[in-house]
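Record SWIM zinc finger family protein, 219 aa.
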Amino acid sequence: MTHSVHTTASAARRTLPDDGLTGRAGRARREPMAVRALRDDTYLVDTEHDSYVVDLDARSCECPDHTIRHARCKHLRRVAMEVNEGLVPPPGERDGVCAVCGDPIFVPVGPGSYLCGAHRPARGEFVRDRESGSLLLVTRVTTERADERETEDGTLIADYESNREYGGHEPVVEAVYVGRAEAADGRLNVAGQRRYSFPASRLRRVPADVTPNLPVVGV
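=>
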């Protein structure tokens, strides 16, 4: 059977740090193996002697230890270990890169633009506009690219003059201007405020201790 490899990971076999485990679990860590994610959410495990396809969701492996003895073989264990340790993507995800810094990340299978933890603001987080210096509050982080997302008048986010210094491939972040929101009863109410869209890197994350110390409602 032919499988389409979904990652660009090196085929070089490696071992995992020995955690003092014994039996199949110990062999899963100590024996050199290369694990690669395939397009159908299965994994190809290459050993010194053969290669097998593992399906984590089905808890199955093509090796004799699993198919004949019905054991949770070392190949199944090794894939689970590499997924848990962030070495290969889990089922339903693929290798990707952060649209801002290019660092490798795991992202959902399918189209879209994504951010790493360092560059992905949280909903309700304060950020600052690099162009105007204004303080904004993030209301949504999308997976739509700035060169694909249009405003109500049909203009692409990436085509606005103020956005041309930022990557059109970046995901669009929606936010409201804090200065236009009402502060009442000790809370900042952004309900009903217009949501503006920006390429992700135009909005700079700021330390929490320099932002308004007010609970926010209406996000």
